[in-house]
Write a structure and sequence with these properties.
The chain is an all-beta fold.
């Protein structure tokens, strides 16, 4: 029989998966454990029992939802710190007081407009926040960003994020997007006013003036047209795409207008009855509406030589028509209240009539000042004036009004300005019109020119964020800009405010301080979920990781901003956190945690897995936070909560190439967690399914603990417990802790300690187990490795500190307590995988620095 001494010198690599059970050759093997439950790995490599959970607040919430409260930090300065709980239709604000206590100071259920808060516990996990001064921005794709504003030490309010606007209210500094195809025309019926009718169409390039009915003979009595043309079948016309219908007079003797009525359906399947007048001699009139199916065309007057056809203009379905039509419009349309922009002129949708027709209130006038100085060009001997107008969007033949043009080419202002007609479209930026006089020289001129027109144009767009298009999923601050990213309609877009002006998103003239709009066009659609301001602006999407580089001695500007794709993993709906120089995140598959780290050797970001050794601890993470110098220890700890209520701790020391995971459990389950400086707060469900706000606080081995003075041998525990509850009690005498045992709360919500006198204060709560299970104790002998051989651990020498209770393979610690130093435990038993289990059930202190096992082979 051979005896070997095997050292477990530290636990610096934390808890590792049993998949490593055969990796006895690795240096990690001897400095890790198969289980470190409710233990903290210290910077020295020792393992220490975690603090207990101090009970702070009972939410009185109980449901099947796994997330009823999402916790966020709110820090104004080191003396004014808060924990914010965002819940279904509610926000609770807890203040951290100077004495370490936490107090609920405000509960909010309505915004400043007296509207209910839009927060929904189905999506609470996905909410993102960013704070600046007294304001926290809360963002999610299903509602307009909200601002939680601190108005005093104990008062908060919630309001809807609003963009800055011009002093006269004629321009809102918000982002706009061209959601439509480039060939879709917007056709308003006036340049100003309210309830102005507008419609959308495309030009097919061809028309069929006689595709519905044969030409009718002259002087026929009023009757229905025969729907037997090229497009008709069985007395009904059904077009592939809804289009305008034309009625053409082919007789020069026909001089009076007539009234016609078309019945059928539009492109949305809604019934249409369209009545209009026309035509006179050799004149063509189109209906004011596009028709998809025609059941009849009738006239109330006699007519001659008319034909019916299809114009070039076809319908475009664009506007939301959610819900039923009421009084000819859709009152539930998500486009109601949305701002459209015709050129640079804004109009607000006040009525949605169909998917291609709306009514708008024009904010100012459909008048555009041309971007180009001296945009007019004359030609000697010609009355044609060429206009440079970037992206004019005209089709030709439109009526326009020229303003403010100076004399050019010898044509005076009165003949340059005024009502004109577009005569020719040269290209997308150039057109011509006929002036009132003839030029006597060729020149560029006009100065600063404005044009008023309600002509159909492709130069229009829509506000980027709305209930129709969704709102940003992510928000952060970076380089003195407020940055939003990823809406439902534009999941890969990023919008940056002007520098120092967080409510102005006007891109302006692309000056360095102007707003920036970017699209992560990397080949795949990148659904932006989170953005982190770190070394660079780091962008985490559902499918990959990207960043916007920060340049040396340069701010990000509209001219140098660029998005670079780095790694292909994607992030789950869990906020990433910076720790030890990297940003750690949960991969989209919910099984791996990675660190996003810039490496100078590769001049790029990498995203290596940091959970490989402890993969069994990562199971669908839902919340994550990091606390620096947490638990009164010098290291930083990241805490991650899984969907099943389990939790894991991660700590890293890159300089020493050390990283460790441990597991956390409680008599219940963990939910949302948040760190405020070095303090970690957690929402925790008890065994009855009730949710409580707690804090990892003090070296007390109790969860849900309450603390109080013992008066007349009675401890009041009504802050958390009620009659019939079982609690464990720790008595305090001159600062020393003594475990007094388990008690039942009496009918007065008190614990009777008459059997334990002499304690001025006491803790009451639920004890939890701390446990260390080593990897199978293994070694190599002259004949080779003994892995898998039957062997036994005959004794263990444990080096411990401040231990008041401990069992080693169920052998209890005896002697003078608390114990410091090395203690030998004699053990029995043989196994092919012998292990040492150190555990503590009592709510007392425990720190294990390492051990030496005597292995019998």
């Amino acid at each position: 029989m051979q005896k070997l001494r095997v050292s477990v010198s530290s636990f610096q690599y934390g808890e590792v998966s049993d998949s490593l059970i055969m990796r006895t050759d690795s240096p990690i093997y001897a400095q890790s454990a198969q289980k470190l439950e409710n233990m903290l790995v210290m910077s020295e490599g020792s393992a220490k029992k975690r603090p207990g959970l101090k009970h702070i607040y009972d939410y009185s919430l109980s449901s099947n939802s796994k997330v009823q409260s999402h916790l966020f930090r709110f820090i104004f300065d080191e003396n004014e710190e808060y924990v914010i709980s965002v819940e279904e239709g509610k926000v609770r604000c807890f203040r951290l007081l100077a004495d370490g206590s936490v107090s609920l100071v405000d509960t909010i259920t309505q915004d400043t407009d007296s509207n209910a808060l839009p927060f929904d516990d189905d999506y609470l996990q996905e909410y993102t926040t960013a704070q600046y001064g007294d304001v926290m921005f809360i963002s999610h794709p299903l509602f307009a960003p909200r601002m939680l504003t601190r108005t005093s030490l104990t008062d908060f309010e919630v309001s809807v994020f609003t963009f800055d606007s011009q002093l006269d209210g004629k321009k809102t500094y918000q982002p706009y997007t061209k959601f439509q195809a480039s060939n879709v025309f917007f056709d308003p019926s006036s340049t100003s006013g309210t309830s102005i009718a507008c419609q959308l169409f495309t030009n097919t390039g061809t028309s069929d003036p006689d595709g519905i009915a044969v030409t009718q003979n002259e002087f026929l009595s009023p009757f229905d047209f025969d729907l037997n043309g090229a497009l008709a079948s069985g007395g009904t016309v059904t077009l592939d795409v809804a289009a305008q219908i034309t009625i053409t007079s082919t007789s020069s003797n026909h001089h009076t207008q007539q009234t016609f009525t078309i019945t059928g359906t539009d492109q949305d399947g809604e019934s249409v009855t369209e009545t209009f007048s026309g035509p006179a001699a050799n004149d063509t009139v189109a209906t004011s509406r596009n028709i998809k199916t025609i059941t009849s065309i009738s006239s109330t007057n006699s007519f001659r030589n008319l034909s019916v056809g299809v114009s070039k203009r076809q319908s475009v379905s664009y506007f939301d028509i959610t819900g039923s039509k009421v009084n000819g419009a859709y009152p539930n349309s998500a486009h109601l209240g949305v701002t459209l922009r015709y050129g640079e002129a804004e109009m607000i949708i006040v009525e949605v009539i169909s998917s291609d027709r709306v009514k708008v209130d024009v904010v100012d006038q459909l008048k555009r000042r041309l971007e180009v100085l001296n945009p007019l060009r004359t030609t000697d001997g010609s009355n044609e004036v060429q206009v440079t107008m970037i992206g004019h969007g005209f089709a030709g033949g439109e009526a326009i009004i020229i303003y403010d043009a100076a004399p050019t080419g010898g044509i005076n202002s009165s003949k340059i300005n005024g009502s004109r007609t577009v005569t020719e479209i040269i290209d997308e930026n150039t057109f011509t019109y006929t002036a009132g006089g003839t030029a006597n020289e060729s020149e560029d001129g006009g100065g600063f020119v404005s044009i008023e027109s309600h002509a159909p144009t492709v130069d229009w767009n829509e506000q980027s964020w709305s209930s129709a298009r969704g709102y940003p999923a992510s928000v952060t601050f970076h380089e003195n800009r407020l940055i939003f990213g990823g809406t439902i309609s534009e999941p890969d877009s990023i919008w940056m405010s002007k520098i120092g002006n967080f409510f102005n998103f006007d891109v302006g003239e692309a000056a360095d301080a102007d707003s920036i709009a970017l699209v992560a066009a990397t080949g795949d659609v990148n659904e932006i979920r989170y953005m982190i301001s770190n070394r660079d602006l780091q962008i985490f999407t559902a499918s990959s990781e990207l960043y916007i580089p920060t340049f040396l001695n340069q701010a990000i500007t509209p001219t140098n901003a660029q998005i670079r794709k780095q790694t292909p993993y994607g992030i789950a709906h869990v906020m990433p956190v910076p720790i030890d120089g990297a940003t750690i995140f949960a991969a989209n598959n919910g099984r791996v945690v990675r660190e996003y780290l810039f490496t100078d050797s590769e001049d790029a970001y990498t995203a290596n897995a940091i959970s490989t050794l402890a993969s069994h601890l990562i199971n669908d993470p839902i919340f994550m936070t990091v606390a620096h110098s947490a638990f009164s220890l010098p290291d930083s700890y990241a805490m991650m909560v899984m969907s099943n209520g389990d939790a894991a701790l991660f700590t890293s020391n890159r300089a020493e190439r050390r990283a460790a995971w441990t597991s956390l459990t409680t008599d219940g389950s963990f939910a949302s967690v948040i760190a405020v400086e070095d303090r970690i707060f957690a929402n925790v469900y008890d065994t009855d399914g009730n949710l409580h706000l707690c804090e990892f606080s003090e070296d007390v081995g109790l969860d849900f603990w309450v603390y109080g003075a013992v008066s007349a041998n009675v401890l009041d525990v009504s802050a958390k417990y009620s009659s019939g509850d079982a609690v464990d009690v720790i008595g305090i005498n001159n600062g020393a802790q003594s475990y007094l045992g388990s008690f039942t709360v009496n009918g007065s919500n008190e614990v009777d300690l008459s059997a334990h006198t002499g304690y001025a204060h006491a803790y009451a709560g639920n004890k939890f187990t701390a446990k260390i299970v080593t990897n199978p104790v293994d070694a190599a002998v002259s004949a080779g490795a003994i892995t898998g051989e039957v062997r036994g651990v005959s004794s263990v020498i444990v080096d411990a500190k401040s231990v008041e209770s401990m069992k080693v393979n169920n052998r209890p610690l005896t002697g003078t307590l608390p114990f410091d130093g090395k203690k030998e435990f004699r053990l029995l038993g043989y196994s092919r995988d012998p292990q040492v289990t150190i555990e503590q059930d009592d709510p007392l202190g425990l720190q294990v620095n390492g051990m030496i096992a005597e292995l019998v082979v």
